[in-house]
Amino acid sequence: MPRSFAEFLRRSFLVTMLAGAALIAAVSLPYFDFETLPPFVIEKFPLRHEALYLASLRVHVASALVTLPLCLVLMTRTLRRHPRWHRWLGRVTAPLVLLLLVPSGAVLAFDAKGGPVVTVGFLLSGAIVGWCTVNGVVAARRRDLVSHRRAMQHVVGQMSVAVTSRAMIVGLDLLGFHPDAAYVIALWVPVLLSALAVELSSLRAVVSSIPSFERIRRDVSSQAVLVRVRAVVRPVARLGR
To answer: Helix or strand or coil: residue 112?
Structure first.
């Protein structure tokens, strides 16, 4: 893939996710109206732990609206070129993800629309975010920037599901899919594709860093010729003495 096209895709992804995060923020404002309840919450009644669910919902939405833009900013070249800013912003973002976003999402997963299949999907996505956040922090502390970047790409990939999933639900609804089926598809497809995309991107980066066979052959041939030349030159030099 040409470098310019890859850069275009990266920037398009960041802009799309930022726009999606802004749209989600706009439609999520009613969640913080303590006098009324959103319609989708009312549909879930009766809830076994209503107070816990509502608190987790508000914590999850608030933390997501903060951490998704922060993670996107951390992925930009500007922040990567300023390690000190990147490090301090990462130190703010990681605790928010681990202490607020992931635990509250796990609570909400057990009352998710679509039943156990969707619950498992949400838990899997949250587990990837939590595991990769921890691994990313550990990798950064030991200066393993390759592993750090791969882990953080998984985090951003799973957080992007909040945007892509909503877009898919709208599209599947327009195509006439049953709401329950559309919800399952719109969750699992982005979760799996995001994880796959990161792994393929990481594999491509590793492969591209390996010299081609032809380059290795040329290097070996050049070294062999150099050895032969040295073997001939040294006796001649000694005879000259």
So the answer is: coil
Report the predicted TM-score, pTM, of the whole model to 2 decimal places.
0.80
Each residue of 130-149: pLDDT tens digit? 999 999 999 999 999 999 99
d(CA 158, CA 102): 11
